[in-house]
């Protein structure tokens, strides 16, 4: 037994993580002690302030961080090597924080539904009872959603930065648990929302069980949960390779569930549809960014030497995700389910970038690495997704949001601006030139080609064409179909939602026209440290 | 050591099959907990085999996480039970296609 050594805590580098966690805890205190009327403003200000402070911290740390261990990559191993604060971590932290600011703005929106937020007045009140009527009459709302969201953001930052399997598991759970609760808190259509929470929870807990057993087997193989030690063990081929193979498979189940890759996509449409739209927007963008960060770190840092055994698996899953996602999206009649299946297809495209892993010295000069391509794609996907779901929350009828696609007919006449912005997000997801989606797809396809995965790239190009059809179908419905009945109504949002949509659209356009700065930023982020 | 790992694999499989076949959300959830406990057994067995403490520490972390998961899970299952008067996972079937 080795002697216990007190780990050093790198407070400066951990500042973004600590401030988000601190604000989440403070939010709980506010919930306990502040009077009901003051909580809304207090929570929104606290969350936004915390996120901005963390974002500033990320920028400062990124400017300051030194090269690690004489290698090319820059970064610091914090708290006894359990958290790796390197370029990709910092890039993902910045991205998650930016998306979370958008999320808070959407959560705080009160203009769309007559002065109340999208969350249940009192989640414990059974729908259709006197208790619920009283809660609605008193204009109650759950301000607990802000601390819950901050805990989820903390998990999303811990998950991709974790440098051992145990920290990664804790990050996975801290990210997931608040999201299970948030999915069940919709003000309208409570039954759908509760059902979404139940399905998300049971399937999520099931998949994290797989992740954990995989972690136990890899620990059994390598004798340590540290990624550097696992990498060492894989290189030297110690222990039984069946433990390693089964462990890798089980870990992948847990991670691929979180990104919604086929065959683990079943929860995606149900949860995206049932959850309150602001939660869907935040979750769809943030979870995918965080989970892909974790996937890359696990596969590249810990299991990079064993890539001949996991790359074929990712080939199959990437191709399946693209085709199943695109094909099932075509058959959907609900816009949130359609966007959910389209996110499954995007998972396939991002995996195309993940499997383009090559050793750094194999890269030709000026060629982008797979980490860089995936980080860029995640940026484009995150902003387009949060913007698209924010637009979905604007189209309403008397029963709340109207998400049936045929009810969107005639939106182009009703509100040309909203229809145009939504069409723009859809074109970005389809990957039309001059939008960010095009550059993102180009980046992941080119790294996969460079790594010799041309069958996947051919499949991805075909899947992009199939997917383009479904986005264009929605655009056709909005502009060229005759409205059903009195047609859709567009609610006027406050500056909060408007800002989120405007920033999403601006980033999507800017990354399509001028992708250079963000690609450079991803290049500066460099590689993972171990 | 192999015996304990095999036992944990058996427990994990029982939990896994239970999740897939049982219809009551509470029983499904109990089966998930069984899977987590199977992981704990594997962690502790491997810790003994490798002679370091990492696995035992992991088991403590897993217990804490499982406790948090119980709180969240029971809250969700209870809300849906109060609304539907049923905890069957088959009844909750509004979201499809």
Automatic annotation (TrEMBL), chain A:
Entry coiled-coil feature ranges: none
EC number(s) per entry: 7.1.1.-
Compartments reported by the entry: Cell membrane; Endomembrane system; Membrane
Ranges that cross the membrane: 14-33, 40-62, 168-186, 198-222, 242-267, 279-300, 312-331, 338-359, 371-395, 416-436, 442-470, 490-514
Record's keyword annotation contains NAD: yes
Residue span(s) of domain NADH:quinone oxidoreductase/Mrp antiporter transmembrane: 162-465
InterPro entries associated with the record: NADH-Q_OxRdtase_suN/2, ND/Mrp_TM
EC category: translocase
Statement: the UniProt record of this protein carries the keyword Translocase: yes
Function, in words: NDH-1 shuttles electrons from NADH, via FMN and iron-sulfur (Fe-S) centers, to quinones in the respiratory chain. The immediate electron acceptor for the enzyme in this species is believed to be a menaquinone. Couples the redox reaction to proton translocation (for every two electrons transferred, four hydrogen ions are translocated across the cytoplasmic membrane), and thus conserves the redox energy in a proton gradient.
Family (UniProt): Belongs to the complex I subunit 2 family.
NCBIfam families: NDH_I_N (TIGR01770), PRK05777.1-4 (NF004441)
Subunit structure: NDH-1 is composed of 14 different subunits. Subunits NuoA, H, J, K, L, M, N constitute the membrane sector of the complex.
Protein known as: NADH-quinone oxidoreductase subunit N
Automatic annotation (TrEMBL), chain B:
Catalytic EC class: translocase
Ranges annotated as spanning the membrane: 6-21, 26-46, 58-81
An example molecular function term from Gene Ontology annotations: NADH dehydrogenase (quinone) (non-electrogenic) activity
Keywords: Cell membrane, Membrane, NAD, Oxidoreductase, Quinone, Translocase, Transmembrane, Transmembrane helix, Transport
Protein transport found in the keyword field: no
Known EC number: 7.1.1.-
Membrane-topology descriptor: Multi-pass membrane protein
Pfam families: Oxidored_q2
Substrates-to-products reaction catalysed: a quinone + NADH + 5 H(+)(in) = a quinol + NAD(+) + 4 H(+)(out)
InterPro entries per the UniProt record, alphabetical: NADH_UbQ_OxRdtase_chain4L/K, NUOK/Mnh_C1-like
Localization per record: Cell membrane; Membrane
NCBIfam families named among the record's database cross-references: PRK05715.1-2 (NF004320), PRK05715.1-3 (NF004321)
Subunit structure: NDH-1 is composed of 14 different subunits. Subunits NuoA, H, J, K, L, M, N constitute the membrane sector of the complex.
HAMAP family in the record: NDH1_NuoK
Function: NDH-1 shuttles electrons from NADH, via FMN and iron-sulfur (Fe-S) centers, to quinones in the respiratory chain. The immediate electron acceptor for the enzyme in this species is believed to be a menaquinone. Couples the redox reaction to proton translocation (for every two electrons transferred, four hydrogen ions are translocated across the cytoplasmic membrane), and thus conserves the redox energy in a proton gradient.
Family that this chain belongs to: Belongs to the complex I subunit 4L family.
Protein name: NADH-quinone oxidoreductase subunit K
